Amino acid sequence: MEAAGQPHRRAGNDQVVQRIAKGLQPYWLQAYLLAYVPLGLLADSKVTAPWQQHLLGLLTFAVLYLAALKAPEGQRMQVWICVAVATCFEIFSSLVWGIYVYRMHNLPLFVPPGHGLVYLFGLLASQTPVVKRYGRRVAQAMLGAAGVWAALGLTVLPLATGRIDVQGALCLPVFAYFLLRSPRWPLFAAIFVIVSELEIFGTSLGNWYWLPAAPWTGIPSGNPPSVIAAGYCIIDGTVLAIVWIYRLGLNTIMTRMTTTMMPRPGPNLAPIAASRAYSGEAVSPASTSRI
Questions:
Q1: CB 121 within 8 A of CB 68
Q2: Higher pLDDT residue, 82 or 272?
Q3: What is the pLDDT of residue 270?
Q4: Nearest residue to 122 (alpha-carbon basis) of 138, 108, 110, 133
Q5: What is the mean pLDDT of the chain?
Q6: DSSP string, 204-258
Q7: Full residue range of the structural domain in which residue 117 is found
Q8: Is residue 1 in a domain?
């Protein structure tokens, strides 16, 4: 037999759960992406052959495709351009410059769509209730977290890791500028969250490894660098430049096609025929034809 008041407490608990679920509903896609990142990295840490990485890459492409369907069409185009742009940066940074190395010394197939997931996560942030409600205070909170991490990388963390993170600290001013001055600040604030998760899990599970000092420059780096999410400021600028060039070129092509296809009026021969008739010349019907 239930104790007195037990049904009322159960109903109250159900209402609390419903309110929590309703409050989290606008974030279900962000939560899904945040959950997929560590699970995908955990799966990669267990694979032993490149073909297994390829399967994980195909799965990640499928996840990105389905998740991107929830974004507006313009943002979907930006996501796929980001995949191409970020892949170029990956080839240079990992395979050419060598500031970090993947565990199989390759560029895993899941990395390009992984950048797309990160970028999509950032693009969707501007429509979340927390951004609409608190506005720039969200940016200030993310900048504060980035500043604390950068400071710890120069002071406390080297005592535990033996590595001083100058590279991450150098990224902080870039991140701060875009976070405080760019109208796309929700993108960068959200990207800091998911990139921090990505880097912490990726380096902890051994998916990749940042060199103690960057080749060519010799700048010391943490594993991972603290504010490496600032790299997406450059990626985002490149994506927007490509979108602008694409639209400019498309508009130019459409304008030329429209101009070329418009019928041009032929010469007006009526005045000529009238002048001949006035002068007494014989005018045949064929001479006044425009064809």
A1: no
A2: 82
A3: 53
A4: 138
A5: 89
A6: HTTSEEE-SB-TTT--B--SS-TTGGGHHHHHHHHHHHHHHHHHHHHHHHHHHHH
A7: 25-248
A8: no
